[in-house]
Amino acid sequence: MSEPIVSDHAFEQYLAAGRLMGVRCVGCEAIWVPPRALCPDCHKSDMEWLAMAGTGKLVAFTSIFIGPPWMVEQGFDRQHPYCTGVVELDEGPRVVARIDGVDASHPEDMKIGLPLLVNFDNVSLDVSRPTSDARGRLVFNPR
Amino acid sequence: MKRTLGRNVAIAGAGMSSFGMFSDRDSKSLFIEAFQEMCGSVDKGIDAHVIDALYVGNFTNDLFVKQSHWGAVLADALGLIPKPATRTEGACASSALAFREAVFAIASGFYDVVLVGGFEDMSKRTTEEVTEGLALASSPYEGAAGFTFPGVFGAMATAYFDRYGATREHLMDVTIKSHENARFNPKAQHQRSIRQIMESRLKRAQDKGGPVPAWETEKDFLADPQANPPIAWPMHLFDCSPISDGAACMLLVAEELATSFTHTPIHVRGIGQGSGRALHAADELTSFEATRAAAQEAYQMAGVDAGDIQFAEVHDCFSIAEIMHTEDLGFFAAGTGYKAAEEGLTRRDGPKPINTSGGLKCKGHPVGATGVAQMIEVWHQLRQTAGERQIPNRNLQIGATQSIGGTGGTCAVTILERR
């Protein structure tokens, strides 16, 4: 995969290929995940792609009992809630992601600070050549 | 930096429709109701032909009603053609932004008399469609992660609980207070206290002869997942504002003209607006950067601080949001807003009444109407025309409103004054 231009689409294509990628601003070294085409700190646009280790911790979460139609289609409802949250990566940036492998029916037992490891949804198996319409979704599991 | 207006602006009249879910009402019908009430509220009368321009806020009508271009549509419905009409969109803060544009239009000297309002027609769609439509105002990353609007605020609540030691019980204090205030608001979508709702359900259970829930207090009722099911934990049904239809509008005039319209003008003392980032990139998970910026701008323009604001309407789309807003506005220190709610400081008879209208939670939240509707409550309180929900025994001079759009991407703060 040649280096794509920095965009949300490219971020999702990397996710579809099973890779969590951010960018580093060549000007001020700030790291941005999801990637930004323009650095909001120094306003330069010279960015280089940077692979994240995929480890982090949970800093906020919710159990969704009434989800959007596309989650309902996957079988999630009042009896089958799912968890989603904010993950602080070990590199510093935060991302929002679904949190799998936890008991979403008992969110009161979940703890902020839970160590997490990245996982992917809708992963295209041919990592070298993600199809142009592949849209990966970011998922984390307890580590 | 202290900002000023080129000339000052006052409110000469205001009106709003009833808020609720109305199968037989559309946007034009709701706005006409608000407009007619506004005309009737102008003490010395108004001939609608003197209105120079219209600014209206609306968020979702393109999607839910399949109609755009609402500035011109409403100008026609109100008999204002060919006066200029402009629509603003800032998600749930849409009409708060319309208000600012209307203020600027008068302050610039270009217009003298401007009609400003907002409206939304949401109830003809399913809950899933409304949830998906409102989520258009969150960030694309949040949608992909399966977040809903209640979910974003639910996640912020868990961060707040973890950081400051608050619990769901403190959210209940907010909900119980909002319902108590809304009992006395005849325009509100939900006009019963939590105790009244609880007692009517107990009576229904007794009449049916089946098992009767063992609720004794309002918090027993709110803690029962049968009565108050989770939507996006820890946000339960009674933590969430409803799906609503409604409209609200105001007549703004150049300050020097105000007394030719009304005996009791309410003056625009300060305005502020800020922008914020998506949830993952927010500088704090327990606070809204856009609100802090908007409040600072408004306070500096008004030459006041948080302690001078006697009461406020804040954007309680979810119970946790009210707590965070009262901190971001500087009414209470960060991490203490939940204690203020618990101690009753924000009740109508407390030292800092918040959401005397019942708030978005009970008054209703037709999103485009909300910003102006909040200002109408402050206008009533300052004019001592809030009826049974009037803040008691207080010489009210300064009140504020705070509206957020989306999950905090936009915030507008307005400070109104009676002299």
The level of helicity of chain B is 25-40%
Strand order, main sheet of chain A: write it out: 4-5-6-8-7
- Give the strand order of the largest sheet of chain B, numbering strands 1, 2, ... along the chain: 3-2-4-7-1-8-11-10-9
Taking the sheet with the most strands of chain B, its summary is: 9 strands, mixed
Which parts of chain B are unreliable, with pLDDT below 50 for 5 consecutive residues or more? none
What does the radius of gyration of chain B come to?
20 Å
Written as H for each helix and E for each strand, in order along the chain, the element string of chain A is: HEEEEHEEEE
Instruction: Please state the CA-atom Rg of chain A, rounded to the nearest Å.
Output: 16 Å
How much strand of chain B? 15-25%
The biggest sheet of chain A amounts to: 5 strands, mixed, barrel
Task: Give the count of helical stretches of chain A.
Answer: 2
Structural category of chain A: mainly beta
Q: Beta-strand percentage of chain A?
A: 25-35%
Q: What is the overall shape of chain A?
A: globular
Mean pLDDT of chain B: 97
Count the strands of chain A?
8
Question: Which pair of chains has the greatest number of interface residues, and how are they split between the two chains?
Answer: A-B, 34 and 38 residues
Number of helices of chain B: 15
Give the low-pLDDT segments of chain A. Answer: 124-132
Oligomer: heterodimer
